[in-house]
Q: What sequence folds into this?
């Protein structure tokens, strides 16, 4: 049966060091151990509303309706297998998938497999499309990991790592994890304030996108700089968080209050807490910097 044009979160989770288990335990015992481990992973997937598409040696390929479920399952797998000193590396992508005869096809599938190969032991790596669709409490666990070319793309895109390690040894629960995060200024905030050269623009979650750029015919916030595109970036509210999306030639640089720097170009990323955005250059002149606060 074929199911086309459906957005799915695809996860590949690969057991690290399985070859060494065959040397250490012997073929029969290692095979049984890996089978038990894959069963544990599959049970966690099912509890998070996922479906195991197939098992490929010591790796599982899974489909979820939402990236939240994929990330929660990946974190829980990491926490559970850590107890028996087994590590996995995980790649998650989100986008159009074709499900046909109990298999999945498309760039989204290929990208998740590619990210799993890039990840190191205990790492969960997600595409930018997956990141911007995450709930705020999960998005705040993510940090930029690398810039790569994904299949079918001629431009580099940022991929992100889910920093779940701090919850090692705890039972995953959204309330528990959320209690460790400072969400007073996070994606759940009621409004986004953008201040440039002393003038503040306020964006509420039901407002239309607010556009920044060089051309007043396109932009509500105008920045007269040759490195700024006519329609450089836009700010809007999407799925529980405020997002900045870059449309420019030179990209945008985001400097957050915790000293993290993120570069985006023709892609989107959620905003948290507060920081400064420079359009088209690493550091804009002070009177052209966009100060954001949620």
A:
């Amino acid at each position: 049966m074929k199911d086309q044009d459906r957005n799915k979160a695809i996860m590949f989770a690969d057991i690290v060091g399985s070859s060494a288990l065959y040397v250490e335990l012997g073929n029969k015992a290692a095979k049984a151990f890996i089978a038990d481990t894959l069963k544990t992973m599959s049970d966690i997937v099912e509890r998070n509303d996922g479906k195991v598409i197939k098992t490929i040696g010591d790796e599982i390929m899974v489909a979820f309706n939402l990236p939240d479920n994929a990330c929660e399952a990946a974190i829980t797998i990491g926490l559970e297998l850590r107890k028996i000193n087994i590590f996995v590396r995980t790649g998650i992508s989100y986008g159009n998938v074709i499900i046909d005869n109990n298999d999945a096809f498309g760039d989204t599938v290929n990208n998740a497999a590619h990210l799993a190969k890039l990840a190191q032991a205990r790492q969960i790596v997600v595409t930018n499309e997956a990141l911007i669709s995450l709930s705020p409490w999960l998005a705040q666990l993510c940090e930029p990991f690398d810039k790569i070319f994904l299949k079918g793309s001629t431009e580099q895109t940022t991929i992100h790592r889910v920093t779940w390690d701090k919850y090692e040894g705890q039972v995953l629960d959204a309330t528990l994890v959320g209690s460790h995060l400072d969400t007073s200024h996070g994606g759940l905030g009621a409004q986004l304030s953008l201040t440039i050269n002393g003038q503040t623009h306020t964006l509420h979650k039901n407002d239309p996108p607010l556009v920044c750029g060089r051309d007043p015919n396109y932009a509500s916030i105008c920045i007269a700089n040759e490195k700024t595109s006519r329609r450089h970036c836009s700010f809007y509210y999407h799925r529980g968080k405020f997002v900045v999306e870059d449309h420019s030639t030179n990209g945008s640089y985001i400097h957050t209050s915790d000293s993290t720097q993120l570069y985006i170009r023709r892609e989107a990323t959620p905003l948290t807490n507060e920081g400064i955005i420079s359009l088209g250059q690493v550091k804009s002149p002070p009177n052209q910097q966009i100060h954001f606060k949620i």
Q: What stands out?
A: The two ends are 46 Å apart (CA to CA). The helical segments are 18-25, 27-47, 67-82, 107-118, 128-131, 136-139, 174-179. The CA atoms of residues 168 and 220 lie 45 Å apart. The chain has two domains: 2-179, 191-293.
